[in-house]
């Protein structure tokens, strides 16, 4: 799953104009936070589920890339 999420992270950042060199280190930090102690619900599994829902409903979002980025921080 981590490889799939890393690619989704890269894709959304690229679409928002973020330099690719920043994508992986930032993803590593986000992944580390979601794996921290005390995370029972808001984990990378939760992020994956949110992003899947965004994909399903994406045609209703005028700013889909912004919604995808927001999905990472739910």
Kindly describe this structure.
The chain has 74 residues and is mostly helical. The chain has one domain (2-71). The chain has four helices and no strands. The chain has helices spanning 2-15, 20-34, 44-57, 64-71. α1 crosses α2, α1 (2-15) packs across α4 and α3 (44-57) packs antiparallel against α4 (64-71). It is globular.
Write the layout of secondary structure elements.
Elements: H1 2-15, H2 20-34, H3 44-57, H4 64-71
Helix pairs in contact: 1-2, 1-4, 3-4
Please outline what is shown here.
The protein is mainly α.
**How many separate domains?**
1
Strand content: under 5%
- Mean pLDDT across residues: 93
Report the oligomer: single chain
Structural class call reads mainly alpha
Number of helices: 4
Shape: globular
What composes the largest sheet? none
Summarize the amount of helix as a percent range.
Answer: 55-70%
Q: pLDDT below 50 for ≥5 consecutive residues: which ranges? A: none
Radius of gyration over all CA atoms, rounded: 12 Å
Distance linking N and C termini: 18 Å
List keywords for this structure.
single chain, 74 residues, mainly alpha, 4 helices, globular
